[in-house]
Specification:
mainly alpha; 54% helix
Length: 114
Amino acid sequence: MVGFLIVLHTVVSILLISLVLMQASQGGGLSGTFGGNAASSVLGGQNAGNVLSRITTWLATLFLSLAVVISMLSGPTDTGSTSLVKQAADSRPVVPPTDIVDPTGEATLDLGGE
């Protein structure tokens, strides 16, 4: 399910980028670069800006909604698996202490010599 939503999110993002680049900005933008205002001729002259703006708004809303849904579905869960480090720490055996060092005695180091 999450994989399908990620693919859908990718397609929506590519469409959104394409629509934003097709819109004419104040300086002309990229809309005039590719085909001489092809979006205006296909979508019909003066209403092309309004149609592109509406489609961009809907795609942006869908993009943000999908981002929120994907983050909620793929976020951390309480019933999910825990980390391997935590599992290893919980399953380690308890080893009782073997030697107790006398803190009042003088510590010596035996190097195996005389």
